[in-house]
Design brief:
seven-stranded mixed sheet, Rossmann fold, 25% helix, Glucose Oxidase, domain 1, alpha/beta, 19% strand, 7 helices
């Protein structure tokens, strides 16, 4: 499927905020307001979807509420880009209810992190529209060096999408280069929301798969990667980028070297693999990663660069 560019944003653009998964409960309000302030300090206006602050058990409203909010912001003439408020576990409830024709027609950039990656990959798979992994309003706008979203106002972004890889412990796990569209996000939600979905196998053909994880033990990382391998996805992709995932396992008897746990699953595959922990759930650089954009990965140079324009 041919990729579809998103509309350019600039200072003065209005960011529509929606809550696709967990609610903004009381203890999160201060960080939510701080995220809004960061957007405004970068010259953006903001607009909340109708149900953005709704609370229904462990979700921000019903499925209908959350789908309605997305459609509302897409239709709003005064909204230029959509940004999710927070992550969670429930974005896979929405994927069969979205108006993908509306999304394709409006071509608005949609940003989100963690669980929102389920929506981002499905939207790209169904429409070809390029979407963006990061940042959420809470937990990422105050943990990113890219809150001004320059990549959405650059005719052809020529920098390294992964950011300042020299400042972190980047490593070549398997050398080589590859070209393909970017897919991926948070590992656990990708497995449950994307790999376990109706997305056709062809979506993964030739793709560069990026992932990060929010602190699971090595054996759980191995379990998720094995699930993807068992589906045959790793037989189809052309490269891999691994973000932040390493954590200390308190169950010492289960302790496995984190990289060994990865190599147990990936050792027989021939695509290049780069570990570049500039993005993840911890406070990192967290650049915006364009899902669906055709890129070139050079693992030896710690480099990921666009091969096409993504805005117009």
């Amino acid at each position: 499927m041919k990729s579809i560019k998103v509309k350019r944003i600039k200072k003065g653009s209005t960011i529509g905020i929606f809550s696709p998964s967990e609610p903004i409960v009381e203890k999160r309000i201060s960080r939510f307001n701080a995220g809004i302030s960061i957007l405004k300090s970068n010259g953006f206006k903001t607009k909340l979807a109708t149900n953005a602050l709704k609370i229904t058990n462990y979700t921000a409203g019903t499925v209908s509420d959350r789908v309605s909010d997305l459609h509302e912001l897409l239709r709003a003439n005064d909204v230029d880009v959509l940004v999710s408020s927070w992550g969670g576990k429930s974005c896979n409830q929405l994927i069969k209810h979205l108006d993908y024709n509306l999304i394709k027609e409006k071509r608005k950039a949609i940003l989100g992190f963690s669980d929102a990656g389920v929506l981002l990959n499905h939207i790209n798979a169904k429409t070809g529209l390029i979407t963006f992994y990061g940042p959420n309003v809470i937990g990422k706008l105050d943990e990113t060096d890219h809150e001004n979203m320059t990549i959405l106002n650059d005719d052809f972004f020529q920098g390294n999408i992964l950011g300042n890889v020299e400042n972190v412990n980047s490593q070549v796990i398997k050398s080589g280069t590859s070209e393909g569209k970017l897919i991926g996000g948070n590992l656990s939600t990708f497995v449950l929301g994307v790999a376990c979905s109706e997305i056709p196998d062809s979506y993964f053909d030739g793709a560069i798969f990026f992932w990060e994880d929010a602190g699971n033990a090595a054996q759980i990382i191995n379990q998720y990667l094995t699930a993807i391998s068992n589906r045959g996805i790793f037989d189809r992709i052309s490269g891999m980028i691994i973000g932040d995932f390493i954590t200390e396992d308190t169950n010492e008897w289960k302790r496995t070297n984190d990289f060994d746990s990865i190599k147990q699953v990936l050792g027989n595959y021939n695509f290049p693999i780069l570990y570049a922990p500039t993005f993840g759930h911890r406070k990192l650089e967290n650049p915006l990663i364009p899902i669906g954009a055709k890129c070139r990965l050079d693992a030896n140079k710690y480099s990921l660069k666009l091969l096409e324009t993504i805005i117009e």
